[in-house]
Amino acid sequence: MKTFKSPKWIEKNKSETNVKYGCEPHERPIENHIKNSIVIIDKPAGPTSHQAASWVRDMFALKKTGHSGTLDPQVTGVLVCTIDNASKTIPFLAGHDKEYICLMQIHKSVEEKKLITTIKNFEGIITQMPPVKSAVKRVNRKRRINEIEILDLKDNDVLFRVKCQAGTYIRVLCSDIGRSLGVGAHMAELRRTIAGPFGEADAITLHDLRDAYEDYKNNGDETKLREYLLPVEFAAKDTPKIIIKDSAISAVCHGANLSLGGIVKFTNNIQIGNLVAIFSLKGELVAIGKAVIDSTAIDKKRTGIACTISRVVMNEDTYPRMWKEKLGDVNVDKQKTN
Asked: Do 161 and 148 meet the contact criterion of CB atoms below 8 Å apart?
């Protein structure tokens, strides 16, 4: 099983933050917190992922919610929902690896040793054709299976755990395993247990969320609602990060590229082309950037552009305009942002 080292922080410039502007994510007023949050739903069997996200939207009477990683109606488990402004962070969430527990039924009995060997042979890079009822074009696609572990065998029922790349079709995986066995197989039940950094322990039911919101509305108690609604910053939990000066924030929020002079510190896992989470010194998510140089170059170079801005998350008026005084912190040639 693969293990990954946590990224290290590298300091580039010293800077302090002004307490007059912005706030730490957990200190946001509750109504603002709701509009800048994600919630991990334990999706029940029945509704589509879109319906589950829509119920969250309607619960809070907001304009939009989103979700990362579609689950079929009968599939249960971890569904990451973004609320209102937090929906801008879907690019961070969409590509995360997933983990599932699957009950597969093989159509004829096979020798246990053959079954185990065949299933383990699917670890690594595989080729899949999306099912007929799918939202993507039906062409062969490469996907990575990180690990498959058989949990239980009983008659023709095979319970297994699979850790895989986003976009892997477990229903197709079961069919392909059955074909390799020469007996056929199909997916009987499926539950998603992990989506990126979020697992079953983080998930709550829609009923739990409704109860917490009603407790806030009727009794003024925010406790459970704050526990269930994670600040939008959690969406970037596994993403390369850059922390910037207060003086760079407003310009970035207006679409200016991020210059090296505006960086306070950064993680050592930034590669060219990576999505990068740009944070304030208070820990607020400012924007989503795209790295044009890697961590080594960010450390060594003194001038130039570190990131272009793909999407602004923070309200543009949260910090004052300072870039006329601090031209070294930003590049004032704006890019179109979403």
From this structure: yes
DSSP 8-class letter at 7 = P
What is the DSSP annotation of 272-329? Answer: TT-EEEEE-TTS-EEEEEEESS-HHHHHH-SSSEEEEEEEE-S-TTSS---TTT-GGG
- For 232-248, the pLDDT digits (tens) are 999 999 999 999 999 99
Residue with tokens 């509009």: 35
72 is catalytic: yes
Q: Which residues of 266-296 are buried (b: 16+ CB within 10 A; e: fewer)?
A: bbebbeeebbbbbbbbbebbbbbbbbbbbbe
For the chain, which domains are there?
A: 9-23+238-334 (2.30.130.10), 98-195 (3.30.70.3190)
The model's pLDDT over 183-233, given as tens digits with 9 standing for 90+, comes to: 999 999 999 999 999 999 999 999 999 999 999 999 999 999 999 999 999
Neighbours of 321 (CB within 10 A): 14
* Terminal Cα-to-Cα distance of the chain (whole angstroms): 38
Please count the other Cβ atoms lying within 10 Å of the Cβ belonging to residue 220.
Answer: 8
Catalytic residue among 42, 58, 72, 155, which? 72
